[in-house]
Specification:
mainly alpha; elongated; Helix Hairpins; 63% helix; 76 residues; 2 helices
Length: 76
């Protein structure tokens, strides 16, 4: 399994790696090949994060009886 296909340990690790990739790409110092590789890894991590958030939302929806409630600071 290549690094681009290797799943991160968790959402937080994926987000940190994605932020690092974005920061590196923003420097403009990568070669074309390195930029393409970083882009592919970033796209994979983005999909991983989106799926993790969707799964979490579904779990919250189940816990809330199928109805997501709007959160406000007054709910504390």
């Amino acid at each position: 399994m290549s690094k681009q296909e290797k799943s991160p340990e968790n959402f937080e690790a994926a987000l940190l790696e994605l932020e690092s990739i974005v920061a590196t790409m923003e420097t403009g110092q990568l070669t074309l090949e390195a930029s393409l590789s970083a882009y592919k890894r970033g796209a994979f991590l983005l999909q991983y994060c989106q799926e993790a958030l969707k799964d979490a939302e579904q779990q919250v929806s189940i816990l809330e009886g199928g109805t997501l409630k709007n959160w406000s600071a007054d709910d504390k």
